[in-house]
Structure prediction request, 396 residues.
Amino acid sequence: MFPGARAHRGSAAYVVVGAPLDASTTFQPGTRFGPRRVRHFAESFDDYDHHTDSEFSALGVADHGDVGPTDDAAEYLEFLRGTLADVREDGAVPLTIGGEHTVTVAGVRAVDPDVVVCLDAHLDLRESYANNELSHATVTHHALEVADEAIVLGARTGSEAEWDRASEDDVTVVPPEEVADWEPPAAVREGRTYLSVDIDAADPGFAPGTGTLEPFGLAPRELHEVVRAVAPHAAGFDVVEVNDRDDGQAATLAAKLLRAFVYAHAAGE
Amino acid sequence: MARQQTEVRELDEGSYVMMDDVPCEIDSYSTAKPGKHGSAKARVEGKGVFDGKKRNLSQPVDAKIWVPIIERKQGQVVNVESDDVAQVMDLDTYDTITMKVPGDVDLSPDDDIEYLEYEDQRKIIRS
Prediction:
């Protein structure tokens, strides 16, 4: 159970769902351990948040447990989409813990947002990668099959074709050095928004436990500010790409960002 | 009751299943593993054949489940009473049955139609 997630599922305002998919990870696998690590490293946090004057355990968070992958990623995403759609139908906000970034596809399909905001080192705009249309490198591309617009914050790498795609009107890329000054635009504030945090948006020095490390990234405080700014407008959230290849830095940051989302979302309603 | 029992694992998209004691057509069938042990869990989403309402269930793949036996029958329109009610003669039994006409179907007397029947529920699917 995610620490502090004491609410009953039926009356919850937020539902944590673990999605330990580890099918298309490139370079360093291990995202199957993400949900477990994130829950574990959340144990040391205080219940009270002084920014919002609220206690996490009083905000109606439930933990659904993990939805375990099968060998068929497409079928798994369908199962996960249904599980997250149930959360939405119950009037709660789904909080998915990955798992590789591919699980965001299920979250976006369940929430059906107008705008997807991604914190990510990578553009993830490929139509397929290594002959796999559901690779974790295709997430923003799939998100745009549902949403009208994608905003990728902290992106600093991609193929030439991805950068070309990112130059189109429905994609906004905010480079790492501009993230601190970014504020949610009207589309985020007024429409239905989905927020996805790929932990590799952070500089690898802060979150080494992830699959595809990319230098010159964001500081944890910058991630924190973005999450707090977007959370009041978001109908769904995930934090993904945490693996077990560090001493808990990536999982600790992911857990703290998930809690920051809940505090800010609850305070913003 | 015109229904038979099967295992959840035998279900597939496009087939029928009873959900909330209502015959439904399956739109989506997917599985996930609950953990290291135990059988996989299936999630079935569908909508009522006769009421169109969305329903879903999530059960182990080896759980027993009821499948409705829905008959596809031929009929001939005898009389159109209104925009949404018609009398139809079953071409097997020659019984005349009053049934609802879906909004997107336009019927005239003597039209041949196909309809689904389950117990006392009927739905015109083709005219």
Summary: Chain B has a mean pLDDT of 92. The first strand of chain B starts at residue 3 and ends at 7. Chain B touches chain A at residues 28, 30-35, 40-41, 43, 45, 56, 58 (CB under 8 Å). DSSP finds no helices and eleven strands in chain B.
